[in-house]
Design a protein that fits this description.
Two copies of one chain form a homodimer. Chain A has 339 residues and is an alpha/beta fold. In chain A, 39% of the residues lie in helices and 17% in strands. The structure holds a DNA duplex (30 and 30 nucleotides).
Chain lengths: 339, 339
DNA sequence: ACCCTGTTGTGAACCGGTTCAATTAGTTAC
DNA sequence: GTAACTAATTGAACCGGTTCACAACAGGGT
């Protein structure tokens, strides 16, 4: 039934008694009288015409598809990737999702292969934001990075997270509850030198009189459980755990359960990146959420925005939203003075 | 630094002292002597040439990108979508992910808009597999559907799930434990008439002497909690709940907790679609898992496979894998005879 | 009338590949 | 030595749009 041949620009031109050129201009409203434009437009959608994106892409040099690259291991990023793809689709852009699985080597490789694909934009959830390889992609390919700015590419735009605010409120919350020693579980991000969040936590903790022990953990529930139990097995057991990622927090729950610790009575757990499951586990996880849709919109519009519009600095910052649920409480034993 | 202009086919031709045509053939190994082919190939990658996918697409009429459409609400499908996108990328195919959010109307609309995009393949996780609108997409666009075959498009290939086996093992497991009345929570899928799983459960349950009450539930944790508590509030409270989807199962946990029921002592819960979180909740969820990678590979190869290769029927079937954890147990009170 | 400017419309070239039909070179056969 | 056939190579057309440079024509001003 769908046997009708695709209509081409020439078909419309013929039907309108105009040249290809005039028709092309008219359809895009670039030239010709109002009357002609309307007439051509009418004919076009009467015949069910729509321009072939491929031909158009070839002619004007842009492919119309962008890549979403980064480490998509955890649920949060995975969801974000899907939302981004959706958001781009709304702008008539196709997307390629490339999971680099947490490895800078793969990230570099993917970037290289992307060059051949002629993507005309990249949204990155960078594994290694300070890597040099980000300069390998041609300058005219716009890059928007989410989470961290690309140090090697200062002209690229970024959507940042206000970690200072997040870490600050988290530690303040714990300090207010009376905790004195807290453990911080940060995701393992290979090569990235100087993780801002950890450093922030150390200095902010200091100023609040908290002793913060930092430990890194894979983003998987199992890996995190392992990392958490090691942290809890230390001689000065922290009374609260601040987990940079809900998956890690879930791992911490498991570790607590394995060690026979009650949450939040014996151990407070604080998450990050509110997931749908956060309110499911028992006790419900106190965590930080994001306005994901806003983040996606910001990233998409940063990518599609004409040159240098928007914020002067080329960066937008989002604040996490504190969601106080049930997994934090004052420490049961007032943090003993050393031993 | 990356200032070098893109190499075009003509550049290679010049460097090799051949015509554009000869070069094109040689690069693809379609014509010319072995020697020439090798030489051209060498020159090409010495100059760092790679064919522009857009120009190629225009010339041979296929766009090289496929769409992944369907309801991507739950974590499982979301993860699958990302894996599919990855799998397609490995075959040099870009993908467009379109979430239709569970609405057949949106599904129809998305399909319509996809036609304009000239996708040359679709992988569907159909909301309404029996809808007529699947015939709207041109026949030459290959469709692979996952989960349900498209009744309106018998020629399309499908990757199916062996529900009979899954439901059978699930009910058998519950029957063996001594349960007599079980509730089935199936996801709400609007318009889909005659949900096979429900029917299956009814008849299989009959043959095992089980009384199965079917109820539908949204796939979100909250919605499911609501649906579950309604089911549990019925006068003949089931002693076990079989949830078609882990998210629903998590909702059931929450409902049980709200009602003060112990899992699995007072209520057994059985999930479906093993998620990473299944082993996290307490007690760990007994559920069914899938070999997702195999499913993805099957779908991708069904899409890329040349005409009519593969299974004669055009369908592959996967069996869920039973994962026995902690959330099922014999019913505490032997299922009372009515009241 | 005449020049100037501004708008509408046009043919042709172009984007970067693929493919057809025709030409040229290279073998083998008699 | 030449007919006969196969393999290598090529120019030109094509895919379906966009864009440039220029022609045709309108109205305004003096």
């Amino acid at each position: 039934m769908t046997g009708a041949q695709r209509k081409t620009l020439q078909d419309i031109a013929d039907a309108a008694g105009l040249s290809k050129a005039a028709t092309s201009y008219a359809l895009r409203g670039l030239r010709g009288s109002e009357a002609t434009q309307a007439r051509v437009r009418a004919i076009a959608d009467e015949l069910g015409y729509s321009a072939d994106p491929i031909a158009r892409a070839l002619a004007n040099g842009r492919s119309g598809n962008v890549a979403i690259v980064g480490s998509l291991r955890d649920l949060w990023r995975q969801g974000l990737a899907v939302m981004l793809s959706e958001g781009l689709r709304a702008q008539e852009l196709s997307s390629i999702i490339a999971d680099v699985d947490g490895s800078p080597q793969r990230e570099a490789a993917v970037l290289r292969s992307l060059a051949a694909q002629r993507v005309d934009g990249i949204i990155a959830l960078p594994v290694d934001p300070s890597a040099e390889y980000w300069t390998q992609v041609p300058e005219q390919t716009r890059i928007v990075s989410i989470g961290d700015a690309l140090t090697a590419r200062p002209e690229s735009e970024s959507v940042l997270f206000d970690n200072e605010y997040g870490v600050g409120t988290a530690l303040q919350h714990l300090a207010d509850l009376g905790h004195r020693t807290v453990g911080l579980l940060a995701p393992t991000l290979p090569t990235t030198p100087g993780r801002p969040a950890e450093l922030l936590a150390q200095s902010l903790g200091d100023s609040m009189g908290l002793s913060v022990t930092v430990s890194s953990s894979p983003s998987s529930v199992h890996g995190a459980a392992h990392a958490a139990s090691q942290l809890l097995a230390g001689r000065e057991r922290p009374t609260a755990l601040f987990c940079l990622g809900d998956s890690i927090a879930f791992g911490a729950y498991r570790a607590a359960r394995d060690l026979g610790l009650q949450v939040p009575a014996d151990l407070s757990i604080l998450g990050f990146d509110d997931s749908e499951l956060a309110s499911l586990v028992s006790p419900e996880l106190t965590t930080f959420g994001w306005d994901e849709q806003a983040i996606v919109d910001a990233a998409v519009s940063a990518l599609t925005m004409p040159e240098g519009t928007g914020t002067a600095s080329g960066r937008v910052m989002f604040r996490p939203i504190f969601i106080d649920r049930e997994s934090t409480a004052p420490p049961s034993t007032p943090s003993a003075p050393s031993h």
